[in-house]
Amino acid sequence: MSRKHVDQKPVTASIKSRPFIIRLGKRLRGTLNKISASQSKIPNAPIIPASLFPWTHRLTENWQTIAQEANAILRHRAAVPPLNDISPDHARIAGDGNWRSFFLIGYGYEVPENCARAPVTAELVRQIPGLNSAFFSILEPGAVIPRHRGVTRGLVTCHLGLIIPDSPENCTMQVETTDCFWEKGQWLVFDDSQYHEVHNRTDQRRVILLIQVKRPMRWLGRFANNLALWGIRRSPFVQDARQNLSHWEEAYRQAEQNEAA
């Protein structure tokens, strides 16, 4: 694998614009989250029943195939980027490099090469109503994701367990005061805007399919949420990440070529 791509520093060309964007986002987040909560058609609880999202059934039925595609991608795990290399904005929570992300779709932008590497999964996630992002989330043994919260209550985060440690109760996520763990072929759905943290206290890797979808809301909530996501999609937060992914795509392609040689 060519190290010149893996070692390349994340894009920071738009860093000067971040302070204003961050201040504006933080100023508006509380208001937008209140709108999302008041307009929500589903509970505002930290943990949300997966049954409220009918599309989850089809992915559950195909979870073993999805897991097989994820496992094939892990053949070149070193060429799957750590999240902090994709998005420098995540450096605080993913700075140890033990959280890797193989993106199929991010904020509505497809990664065609990755979708081709996981064709069944890609086709299944394309059919999800209100899809924002879909990727394989890879957590290494001993990894810790410190307490944090997501950008907006307008998105709901859904985890499908694929490759889970033999002692799943030692690989946990706490959402506010609720402790949870992943199980193979099972969904864990939660409000990402609530504080949460993750600890993998095992010597095995944890792999899930992470899906983010728009929260079901009444018209005012949908309008405000779509406007907010429109801004996020065009911000350096997303656009720099897209450019960083292109560098890692070359690294993954090189790893595949080396395997075939």
* Mean of residue pLDDT values: 88
Strand order of the largest sheet: 2-1-3-10-5-8
Distance between the termini: 12 Å
- Structural category is alpha+beta
Q: What is the count of helical runs?
A: 10
Largest sheet: 6 strands, antiparallel
Helix content: 40-55%
Q: Spell out the helices and strands N to C.
A: HHHHHHEEHHEEEEEEEEHH
Number of strands: 10
Shape: globular
The fraction of residues assigned to DSSP E strands is 15-25%
Poorly predicted tracts of residues: 1-16
Radius of gyration over all CA atoms, rounded: 18 Å
Description:
The chain is α+β, with helices and mostly antiparallel strands. The protein contains 10 helices and 10 strands. It has helices at residues 3-6, 18-39, 56-61, 63-73, 83-86, 91-94, 112-117, 119-126, 219-233, 236-260; strands spanning 99-106, 109-110, 131-139, 144-148, 155-163, 171-175, 178-181, 187-190, 196-200, 206-214. Strands 2-1-3-10-5-8 form a 6-stranded antiparallel sheet. Strands 4-9-6-7 form a 4-stranded antiparallel sheet. A hairpin with a 2-residue loop joins strand 6 and strand 7. Helix 2 packs antiparallel against helix 9 (219-233). The two termini are 12 Å apart.
Helix-strand blueprint:
Blueprint: H1 3-6, H2 18-39, H3 56-61, H4 63-73, H5 83-86, H6 91-94, E1 99-106, E2 109-110, H7 112-117, H8 119-126, E3 131-139, E4 144-148, E5 155-163, E6 171-175, E7 178-181, E8 187-190, E9 196-200, E10 206-214, H9 219-233, H10 236-260
Antiparallel strand pairs: 1-2, 1-3, 3-10, 4-9, 5-8, 5-10, 6-7, 6-9
